[in-house]
Design brief:
The complex is a heterodimer of chains A (112) and B (112).
Chain A: E1 4-7, E2 10-13, E3 19-25, E4 31-37, E5 43-50, E6 53-57, E7 64-70, E8 73-78, E9 87-94, E10 102-103, E11 107-111
Chain B: E1 4-5, E2 10-14, E3 19-25, E4 30-38, E5 45-51, E6 56-59, E7 62-67, E8 72-77, E9 86-94, E10 100-102, E11 106-111
Parallel strand pairs in B: 2-11
Antiparallel strand pairs in B: 1-3, 3-8, 4-5, 4-9, 6-7, 7-8, 9-10, 9-11
Classes of the chains: A mainly beta (112), B mainly beta (112).
Chain lengths: 112, 112
């Protein structure tokens, strides 16, 4: 009964590949997010969707494309993976634009 | 340009003593502040928050203090317990914004 679940937990891939990370929340929240935790440990927002509408799109390369098929899901597709994409990616959700986020357990992406 | 900074990457305290985690910010438009706790291999979880109209908020063993003039907040944990050992993230939000800006985290270790 995990509130925010993301898969896979670990993802090891070669440069140039395309990969997806899936996220689902069963909290009934309207807003979902993708955060990236880089090597310096900062958590930085990448995207936010509210009711399936994109509301935050930080300066992220357009190789990253979020897709929200419904309010409970926000997937992240990454094209042409680069070494610098290696990081931990966290999905999160909140009730509306509430500050209290509920995070998934993260996906450790390693690009070789 | 990191608007939220936690200058201590780590802190070690004895069980039963007080833990004080510090956070500084530069953006005067921030009006809501939060602390998140993160265990290894898990996502951050919300711990406590404070609005800029207050200077203190208490929840059990956890108290957050806000000094707006100094653009500084701190989290006090007393008494500290070994189970409090985790990474603590400070986060802030602007008055009219919906995104959270996170600090880089402080690893707290509470020794038995």
């Amino acid at each position: 009964d995990t509130a925010v679940s993301q898969t896979p937990k670990y993802l090891v891939t070669q440069m140039g590949n395309d990969k997806s990370i899936k996220c689902e929340q069963n909290l009934g929240h309207d807003t979902m997010y993708w955060y990236k935790q880089d090597s310096k440990k900062f958590l930085k927002i990448m995207f936010s969707y509210n009711n399936k509408e994109l509301i935050i799109n930080e300066t992220v390369p357009n190789r990253f494309s979020p897709k929200s098929p419904d309010k409970a899901h926000l997937n992240l597709h990454i094209n042409s993976l680069e070494l610098g994409d290696s990081a931990v990616y966290f999905c999160a959700s909140s009730r509306g634009l509430d500050e209290k986020l509920f995070f998934g357990s993260g996906t450790q992406l390693s690009v070789l | 340009d990191q608007q939220v900074k936690q200058n201590s990457p780590s802190l070690s305290v004895q069980e039963g003593r007080i833990s004080i985690l510090n956070c500084d910010y530069t953006n005067s438009m921030f009006d809501y502040f939060l602390w998140y706790k993160k265990y290894p291999a898990e996502g951050p979880t919300f711990l406590i928050s404070i609005s800029s109209i207050k200077d203190k908020n208490e929840d059990g063993r956890f108290t957050v203090f806000l000094n707006k003039s100094a653009k500084h907040l701190s989290l006090h944990i007393v008494p500290s317990q070994p189970g409090d050992s985790a990474v603590y993230f400070c986060a802030a939000k602007e008055i009219s914004g919906s995104r959270l800006t996170f600090g880089e985290g402080t690893q707290l270790t509470v020794n038995p």
